[in-house]
Amino acid sequence: MRKVELWGLLWIFLVSEVGAAVEPAEERYELLEGQTLTVSCPFNIMKYARSQKAWQRLPDGKEPLTLVITEGSSGNPSEVREGKYTLKDDPAEAMLHVQMTDLRVTDSGLYRCVIYYPSKEPIPLLHPVRLVVTKDSSGLPTLSITPTTSPTKAPILITTKQLPRDRTVTQAFPKSTAGVSPDPGVTFPNVTTVTRVSISSIVVLVVCGLFIKTLVFTVLFAVTRRSFG
Which residue of 41, 66, 154, 207 could cross-link 113, Cys pair, CB 3.0 to 4.6 Å? Predict the structure, then answer.
């Protein structure tokens, strides 16, 4: 059991050493003149969310040259631009974005992102960036495309014919033989005759009905009384 543990520890040690040897010491970017370098440097949001960050150049045999520095932020995204250098500090993403525009051959060199401290040594955030800028080897001149106006076309005339407006057709309704005048806008079915009942006829019928009911009630009352008398 002890031999297995020793072999396991030895294997972990060898893997870590090989990984450290294979891991590159710097990142290399090869670009042409006029192009833009974009680098993103992650940082520990718990430690450096409010710290100043900087983009530095590392000349051979000289002190690091600080090119642009962010301001001490309050945890909100901020952006600083100095000439061709732009830093975007985004604490929400825990990322420092770097841009170098309009690259030239003289910009070739070693760069790095750091946590900047005015009074002590800065803390690197990423492997140094090796920038190699070369001229365009194609030999073709750089063309600037200027938009030109399109040739003037003859105007197209569209003739529209004015359509006549909807005309309201008013048609007189035929007079009814029963003397009923229709309401405008209402279409009646084929009505031939309408019977008119007078009020006097209705009164006569009601009175006759009441008289008959009274007579029947009187007869029934007399028969009932004689039966019990």
Answer: 41
Q: How far apart are CA 9 and CA 98, in angstroms?
A: 40
> Which helix (H) or strand (E) is 205 found in, with range?
helix 199-228
Tokens 């007579």 belong to which residue? Answer: 215
Q: Would you tell me how many other CB atoms lie within 10 Å of the CB of residue 133?
A: 20
Task: Tell me the residue type at 102.
Answer: D
Nearest Cα to Cα of residue 186 among 202, 168, 171: 171
Q: What does the longest C-alpha to C-alpha distance in the chain come to?
A: 151
- Partners of residue 104 on adjacent β-strands: none
Of 211, 48, 189, 40, nearest to 127 by C-alpha is 40
pTM here? 0.51
In 3-state terms, what secondary structure has residue 223? helix
